[in-house]
Amino acid sequence: MEIEKPYLFTEINDNFFNFLVVEYNEELDFKIIYSKSVKSEGVSLGKIFNLETCFEIIQKNINQIEKEVNFIFNKVTVISDIFNLECLNISSGKKLNGAQVTEDDISYILNNIKKLVVDNEPNKSILHLFNSNFVIDDVISKKIPIGLFGEFYNQHLTFYLLSKTDLKNFKSIFNRCKINIERIFLKNFVEGINLINKEKINSKFALINIYGKKSNISFFDNLSPIYSENFKFGSDIIIQDISKICSFSFNTAKKIIFENNFDQIDKNLNKKYLPEKYFDETKFRKISFSHIKNIIDARIEEITDLIYENNINLKEIKNKNDLVYIYFQDEGIFKNLALSFKKNFSNLENFKSFKQTKDELMNACISSAELLGKGWEKEAIPITQSKKSIISRIFSSFFQ
């Protein structure tokens, strides 16, 4: 990056295109000089399905931003929450027979694992690679154990892969704007790093995002994202249940949830019914709040079971003492159902829920600006853009 010159970050998600412009100083600290959010179109589950629509909106706004900051951009860092992401965890080791761990040992393991991934995933590109664990003689080391003596060294790495087709779509949009993509950060990663810094987390934790049409869980351990999984359901499925079972339209069912605090419903409300204002589209019927609450609770229990409590993919990862953070996209879901979600998690004492406010829309871009400038100690593969290759430097920061 160039010092004391504007640098562009763009987040692409289902709801917004977020633009952030910063300037870095010689210490690689940054200051924000411009930010903007616009409604997104042509994106579903983080995937671009209408290239032309996305391009027109992004190009229009970048042109406006360039006029505002009086600078023509030629590089951008993109933040993506694309759904069809793949997370791979791979371990490899080497017998030391009492010798030291050397840089050559680690480079050998890294390159062998990378080659294995590249050879077996020809249609995908590596976006992130993290050093999840260093283990020497069954003892986990928080830092690279170069110089230590032992009998056996094992290294665990976590890869995040993106379809080359999706990558080409991102590149196409910005190349048509005459801008090269320097890096792509995955939103789950930067959100986790933001949470680590904000909450001063130094232990294992799960970060769950509940959106309208999708959900995600990411696990972090020892400052490294070690697992991520996406689900094609979100809070909308609760609204759909009420709509279907009670014969309401989706919008009416949504109003019922957003206008009534179901977390506070108690025995005194068992005999209370929905008011007539919710029956504009249909004939009035006696439907109790407790009946709606039962529908909600049944679906929330299923959601939390699938994502966390009984997720078989987390069997070897989670334990009873893990911290669990859950973010809600919709204000109404957070305000009226957060407690109902909380009651379904076994580790209640370590549970926190949040709602992303409008002021926090830029958090992913801001965290990405920090990461681009200072890096992250657990990340082994900085991705840069060149004329010949998306991945132009492999492992170059590993020993820095």
Report on the structure:
The structure is a single chain. The chain is an alpha/beta fold and 400 residues long. Among the domains are: 6-83 and 165-191 and 361-374, Nucleotidyltransferase, domain 5, CATH 3.30.420.40; 86-161, Dna Ligase, domain 1 (2-Layer Sandwich), CATH 3.30.1490.110. Helices cover 32% and strands 28% of the residues. It is built from 9 helices and 16 strands. The chain has helices at 51-69, 103-120, 164-176, 187-199, 236-246, 250-259, 289-309, 331-342, 363-374, and strands at residues 6-12, 16-24, 30-39, 43-44, 47-48, 75-80, 86-95, 124-136, 139-141, 152-163, 180-186, 205-210, 215-221, 224-231, 323-328, 351-355. Strands 3-2-1-6-11 form a 5-stranded mixed sheet, sandwiched between helices. Strand 1 (6-12) and strand 2 form a beta hairpin. Helix 5 crosses helix 6 and helix 5 runs antiparallel to helix 7. The longest helix has 21 residues, at 289-309. The radius of gyration is 24 Å and the shape is globular. The model is unreliable at 382-400 (pLDDT under 50).
